[in-house]
Amino acid sequence: MNWHQIWEVASAPDNVPIVALLFLIPFYTWYAFHQALENDALIDKLSADPALAKTEYRKTEPWNPKWEKEVHTWPYLMRIELVAAILVTVLLMVWSITLNAPLEEPSNPNVTMNPAKAPWYFLGLQEMLVYFDPWIAGVIMPTLIIVGLMVIPYIDANPLGNGYYTYKQRKFAIWTFLFGFIGLWVLMIVIGTFIRGPGWMWFWPGQTWDAQRVEFAVNRNLDQIFGVNGSWIAHLMPAANVAYAPILARIIFGVFPLILYFLVAGYFSHRLLLLTDFSRKIFKRMTLLQMVTTELFLVLMLSLPIKIILRLVFRVKYVWVTPWFSI
Amino acid sequence: MAESNGENNGAKKSTGLLDRVRQDVTELKETFKEKGKEELEGLKEPEKSQLFRSVFRVKHDETPRNRALSVLSNVFFHLHPAKVNRDAVKYKYTWGMGGITFYLFIVLTFTGVLLMFYYHPSKVQAFRDILYLENDVPFGKLLRNMHRWAAHLMIIAVWLHMFRVFLTGSYKRPREFNWCIGVLLMVLTLLLSFTGYLLPDDQLGFWAVTVGTNMARATPLLGTEGPFGALLGMTPYNDVRFALLGGSIVDANALLRAYIWHCIAIPLIASIFMALHFWRVRKDGGISGPAPVMLESEIKEEKGHRPVVLRPSGLQ
């Protein structure tokens, strides 16, 4: 086992933020859930006792009727901002004195860096390049992430949990976000940083990043696995165009798994929206556009882990091959 | 007249002049003492001085009115409301990440401007400027390190801010639009960081930007290697990657473009969106919580038409 290798990656100054995220994200997730469960207990208590719900302060914060509900910004907020600014400055100072920003050799188009990695925050996108062609991983997916984030407020028909931490009242929303943010975005960055070595090959922690390693491409397209060669379609074509039969057959063949995926995943995400009594109640409030958008984005989001499994476990390169693009 | 008298007197008898001077000096001694005392008394209450009052428009005593005014009548603080929810000033609800992000933007602007003094965005100079900065400029290394790490920290702070806003459901009505602005600000933060990556003109930045912009080649319709790109006449010399780099390879033009996007264009755009973001925070009712919990039994059945996202407002 080569633990020096993983140390080298983890201690690279530019990777400090990812190592920090490995601690910060679990901490803040715990911090949020800790408060969410406190609020959920309060919600349970108030739901069971409608009389209490009318008089209760409805927060887990200490409360005294004599206290004013609001405090002056000056000094009660301004002093916090001052302290926060000082702490951040001190942190930055210490970080900047102890660790130097990396500076490699002068840029040289003739000497390729191996691995050539994007900045750490884009490594999730670079890792996606393994599973999708660049036009999906580099263009379509980032656009979908941005648009998908922006539609969240418009598709969330659940009026509960506005302005306080809760898990019980927003299970679906929270699981979806955690899956997308931690499960897909952060995890992909971690894989891109720690696991991917020279040639963007998969190196387990403890393996040496061997630039000489050769990997045999064993990936096949779905149509190859199913042995689609177009012989059946060739009979129907003019003799002059028979050479195009395999291409045409692949185009036609590839549409079906995609349709199948959209149907199955669409139905699956529809079931997710109807999982509990509460989610059915929220579903009734949704408009058609909200329903369709939610399910569409769920299906598109799920396509990434599905493709990862197809690729890593079943060694499938493309599902749909056309002369213009492949998926 | 007094002057000419004095001259005449001086010319006639010099002793008179000495007396006059002596008298003036004794007078001045007393005045000096008096005025000095007054001045010292004044120093005990600097906030009453003309200088202080000319700078700060209101008294900074502890009356509620002036506490409110010291925020509202200050151009730097006036984005704050006069009063805030007493539970919202606790760290546990907000995590302070939005404010930290903004503070880091200020730090980055400050260190960035200083770095600009030592940097030429040209292929010949850029890398040497970094070497010069690191080895010869006093505190140059510290400056560059701070700019680099503050940029990384800003990205982390933005993500955690978004995480918190999601987990508290703060994007819900009436803050939907501000969430969208926030998403755009996050994208701008990433782009700011990415455009800065190329500027040292070292192997790290060069290959990161090469990898990054190669993806643009694959843009559907607009990239030479993207779906239908070639069919639409896209070549390496007219596609979207060419527009980003100002050429078909990462070279001098790409460096200049990255520099201008990084130092001028994106900070300007981000500033406009930030102004909008903060303004909307106030207009949408200030900080979202901690709000009193709402119970499932209290969900109101919508009367008549539900508020449909895309219905013209006149028809609602």
Structure notes:
The complex is a heterodimer of chains A (327) and B (316). With 327 residues, chain A is mostly helical. Chain A folds into 2 domains: 1-69 and 120-212, no CATH class; 216-327, no CATH class. Chain A is 60% helix and 1% strand. Chain A has 13 helices and 1 strand; from the N terminus they run αααβαααααααααα. Chain A has helices at residues 3-11, 16-48, 50-55, 73-76, 78-98, 123-128, 134-155, 171-195, 222-225, 231-234, 245-273, 277-285, 288-312; one strand at residues 70-72. In chain A, helix 7 (134-155) runs antiparallel to helix 13 (288-312) and helix 11 packs across helix 13 (288-312). Chain A is flat and about 90 Å long. The mean pLDDT of chain A is 90. With 316 residues, chain B is an all-alpha fold. Chain B has 2 domains: 18-74, no CATH class; 96-286, Up-down Bundle (Cytochrome Bc1 Complex, Chain C), CATH 1.20.810. Chain B has 12 helices and 1 strand. Chain B has helices spanning 2-12, 14-44, 50-55, 64-72, 91-94, 97-116, 126-135, 140-167, 176-198, 203-216, 240-245, 252-283; one strand at 83-85. Chain B is flat, with a radius of gyration of 32 Å. The mean pLDDT of chain B is 88. The chains are: A mainly alpha (327), B mainly alpha (316). At the A-B interface, helix 2, strand 1, helix 4, helix 5 and helix 7 of A face helix 4, strand 1, helix 5, helix 6 and helix 7 of B.
